[in-house]
Specification:
Elements lengths: L6 H7 L4 H9 L88 E2 L22 E5 L5 E6 L2 E6 L8 E4 L5 E7 L3 E6 L10 E2 L9 E2 L6 E5 L4 E6 L6 E7 L16 E3 L2 E5 L4 E6 L3 E2 L5 E2 L3 E7 L3 H7 L10 E3 L2 E5 L4 E6 L10 E6 L9 E2 L5 E4 L1 E2 L6 H10 L2 E4 L8 E5 L8 E2 L5 E3 L2 E5 L4 E6 L5 E6 L9 E3 L2 E5 L4 E6 L7 E7 L10 E3 L2 E5 L5 E4 L1
Antiparallel strand pairs: 1-5, 2-39, 3-4, 5-6, 6-7, 7-8, 9-10, 10-11, 11-12, 13-14, 14-15, 15-18, 16-17, 19-20, 20-21, 21-22, 23-24, 24-26, 25-28, 26-27, 29-30, 30-31, 31-32, 33-34, 34-35, 35-36, 37-38, 38-39
Length: about 550
């Protein structure tokens, strides 16, 4: 039974404990039947049968080539012949979770295996790792011996990229053999596997045909699988239980008729054997993975596309133009998933009947600007949306709308009225401003870096900026909070730690000068060690 909260039901349970919420959800709440009508989309594409390719109600505008290079179109993977959930034939226990993300997962780890399995730790993007953190950390190791660099082209222009940038957070994979592995993609066109304790390589790197900008995801349910995208147009699944990492599946962004480019910057999320992901081609996807172990004990995956829909419509294109890529990572709460795009649109889908190919739009908000930073969801289901404001790249409608609503906004996706609760103006002059980073949620406050160079603390209830500090221009790294310590990386090459004994008045405890290169990537923190990539070409550990 698909039980959803009405606005009245939600107001009654907001602020309740996790146990109360679970008890409420078990009761006879209002049953909302999804009518299958997707509002505001140009096309609604579902691969729900076994006979052929994606069908689209009405075709979106076309593009002739990727903005990053040659079009390398591939066929859509064939769907499986059954939708019966797989079972394991090995002794490893894999616990399936329900097809909801309960509100009480905010701030908690996600999955059955310990580790930091995804960008910002869980589907609400509110988990940052574990301590204890040192009061004066120092560098433990640097990997590798030479910088990780390669050349990449976009818009016909080539340049050399080094290290890791936005978003670039590694994952921490606690393997069954006792080794804790750090896994990350880099600008040298490869995924790397490193012993988290020593900084030594643990296995052969997995190479792609272009740079990797986003963060990888390790399977949260214990399967030895890795999920990630690359600028080479491919979203991939790689098995980790062979001698070397082995590709099990991929899909090319050109499998659908997108309108921007073919990168995969967003970080995939896996819930109840379903992978959710957005592409820079402007489309949003859901794949049922059919993970299982074969008779030889090796993992298997057989993805079936449940959903492929454009995140734009004619109205958005008229307001914001053709840059409608999905670069932020999907968030999930209860039976909904949310994402934004570079056209300034925030969408929420009801995924309670996703296995039937139904994901009706239940929330649609136009904020203008460019929403690349990942949305954050709090324990009551409110959305915190960070927005870039780039005057030179916006038409007047989009620019005026973003100036009207602000560059950090709080939305209520359950109300039947105006969803915007508050918004903050972070613009200054005619320059690019706003936020590229994903806020950290802690004790009723948001901590986030702005592009113009401020680290701010914002009251979630009122939207009041209660504290700020200068961190330097182009601060895209997302802050993290562990053990009442706020960890922040800057584009000036500093790693900082602030005490949050008084959350409204952070006090800087320590500063590490790492390099002259920009720190755009987001740190991962596990068992008191901070792992951070840099644009100088290296991954470092601090403890």
């Amino acid at each position: 039974m698909a039980v959803l909260f009405s606005q009245e039901n939600r107001s009654a349970v907001r602020g309740s404990s996790g146990a109360d919420l679970m008890e409420e959800r078990a009761g006879p709440l209002i049953l909302v039947i999804a009518f299958g009508v997707v509002l505001g989309f140009i096309g609604f594409a579902v691969l729900g049968n076994e006979d052929g390719p994606i069908t689209v109600g009405s075709s979106p505008p076309t593009t002739s080539a990727s903005a990053d290079g040659e079009v390398d179109a591939t066929t859509t993977p064939s769907p499986p012949t059954t939708t019966v959930p797989p079972t394991t034939t090995t002794s490893e226990v894999v616990v399936r979770v329900p097809n909801i993300v309960p509100g009480w997962s905010v701030g908690e780890s996600w999955g059955t295996r310990p580790g930091l399995t995804m960008f910002r730790g869980n589907p609400t993007r509110t988990y940052y790792g574990t301590g204890p953190l040192s009061a004066s950390p120092s560098q433990l190791w640097k990997y590798p011996g030479v910088p990780m660099c390669s050349s990449s082209s976009t818009g016909g222009e080539s340049k050399v990229w080094c290290g890791m940038g936005w978003t670039g957070q590694p994952v921490v994979y606690e393997r069954s053999d006792g080794v804790t592995e750090l896994i990350f993609g880099a600008y040298d066109r490869a995924v790397h596997f490193v012993d988290a304790e020593t900084g030594e390589k643990t296995r052969a790197r997995f190479e792609t045909n272009d740079i990797i900008k986003g963060s990888v995801t390790v399977d949260p349910d214990g399967y030895p699988l890795l999920y990630f995208g690359s600028r080479d147009n491919k979203l991939r699944i790689v098995a980790l239980d062979r001698g070397d990492p082995e590709q099990m599946w991929s899909i090319d962004a050109n499998a659908v008729n997108g309108i921007w480019n073919n990168d995969w910057d967003a970080n995939p999320v896996i819930i109840d054997d379903i992978l959710y992901e957005g592409g820079e081609n402007g489309w949003f996807f859901a794949f049922e993975l059919h993970r299982e172990y074969l008779s030889d004990g090796l993992v298997s995956v057989d993805p079936h596309m449940l959903l492929a829909i454009p995140g734009y419509n004619d109205d958005l294109l008229a307001k914001s133009g053709r840059n409608v890529s999905i670069e932020n990572s999907v968030v999930a709460y209860d039976q909904r998933v949310y994402f934004g795009n570079s056209g300034g649109r925030v969408l929420g889908l009801d995924v309670s009947n996703i296995r039937d190919g139904k994901a009706p739009v239940v929330f649609d908000y136009y904020a203008g600007g460019d929403i690349d930073a990942t949305i954050v969801v709090d324990e009551d289901g409110f959305l915190y949306v960070s927005i870039e404001h780039e005057p030179s790249q916006m038409d007047s409608v989009e620019r005026d709308r973003n100036l009207e609503v602000g560059q950090l906004i709080k939305l209520d996706p359950y109300t039947s009225g105006e969803p915007r609760i508050w918004g903050i103006d972070l613009t200054s002059g005619g320059f690019d401003t706003g936020i590229w980073a994903t806020p950290a949620l802690h004790e009723g406050l948001l901590y986030v870096n702005t592009h113009s160079g401020e680290l701010i603390a914002v009251e979630t209830e009122t939207g009041e900026i209660v504290w700020s500090d200068e961190v330097g221009w182009h601060s895209w790294s997302s802050p993290s909070v562990v053990d009442d310590t706020l960890v922040v990386a800057t584009c000036t090459g500093e790693l900082r730690g602030y005490s949050l004994v008084n959350p409204r008045l952070p006090v800087r405890q320590w500063t590490i000068e790492i390099s002259e290169a920009c720190l755009e990537a987001t740190p991962a923190i596990w068992n008191g060690t901070i792992y951070l990539g840099s644009r100088d070409g290296f991954m470092r550990a601090f403890r």
